[in-house]
Amino acid sequence: MDVNAAVAAVAAIAGVLTGVIAMLAFRWSEREQKRPTRSSLHTDAVLPPGVDTVLSVLRSSAVVLDEADAVVKASSAAYALGLVRGGKLAVEPMLQMARDTRRDGEIRQVELDLPRRGTGRGEALAVSARVAPLGSRLVLLLVEDLTEARRIEAVRRDFVANVSHELKTPVGALSLLSEAVMDASDDPEAVERFAGRMQIEATRLTSLVQELIDLSRVQNDDPLEDAEPVRVDELVAEAVDRCRHQAGAKQITMAAGGTADLRVWGNRGQLAAALGNLVENAVNYSPARTRVGIAARSVNAPGGDHIEIAVTDQGIGISDKDKERIFERFYRVDPARSRATGGTGLGLAIVKHVAASHGGEVTVWSAENQGSTFTLRLPEAGAARDRAHQRSARETRAGGAGLDVEAGRATPESPESNAYETLPAPEVLP
Q1: Which residues of 338-371 are buried (b: 16+ CB within 10 A; e: fewer)?
Q2: From residue 307, how far is each of 86, 241, 277, 348, 349 by CA, in Å?
Q3: pLDDT at position 131, please?
Q4: Amino acid 292: pLDDT
Q5: Across-strand partners of 239?
């Protein structure tokens, strides 16, 4: 009887001890789960409420650093720019700014040029970095990519400088010639000679201003708003008539040919100006007693049929290094010759913008002392009109989104694509 009682007492004590141990183990487990770990210090939980949401919608690259300079939060753009590597901020000047801001709480901003990732050419990536405290322990770094903005600003600055230079030349000439006329008031022959020079400079100034207006218009306007089917034959005839006088003075034969009755879809005025610029350049850069030809044909393409208008000359040609830049504004292959012919350096830039805004492209084949062939490639009227109507319908459904014009990639033409060899014989125009 006493043995049974002892066994029962021992069992009761063991049960109580087991319950106490289990309760202590449960409490210890809960405490361990609530204790912050090394990994949890670098999760979103340490960010103040709402910060994660704000950072996710910012256009800037965002990086949040803790008191140990470890990255707590970083946007995908920050990784793409190479700001964060291996959980650390990889740009030393930005890291030093973060440490200074953590120490005194002041907001800092600086512009830096960083090496571009994945290139060995030392190309710089222009960024603006701004550092600010975030709470008591964190620091927020915001980085803006300024590379494209700087490129656009450089283009605008060069354009203004070029325009100023181009305008200053004829204006200065007019000023000097007017003084010469006043000084030679008693010499009728000198007055007549100086007046003729003034007329030339005035014409050049008028041409430059008009081409600046045309370039601004083709860059800002949507040519397909007032688009219509345009006969290629009429565009060619208008371009030839525009240059007939200059060609006659140099005894240059103007020839037109190719497939008849072709139509393109677009703005007639812009298309006529673009083709006229190509023909005028061909005449101006061709020696006397040579031939300039214009021919058109239809070609099949995966995105729809296209019309190619080729303008071929037997002029001085273009070197390989100049081919890459001839469509830049104010760029001239031969500046002295351009000034002699009254060229402004804007003609091919206008052609490029007109072609791109119409969904086409302009390409060039050329060899020095062998001539050049400029090819204006545009969508044929039917296919282009259908695409324009489909795009207009999509924009209407989407709430009037802007027109998206896709320009094809330029590919150099080969001599075999010369219009006179692939198209019917052109008609020689007197």
Answers
A1: beeebbbbbbbbbbbbbbbbbbbbbbbbbeeeeb
A2: 54, 21, 18, 19, 20
A3: 92
A4: 92
A5: none
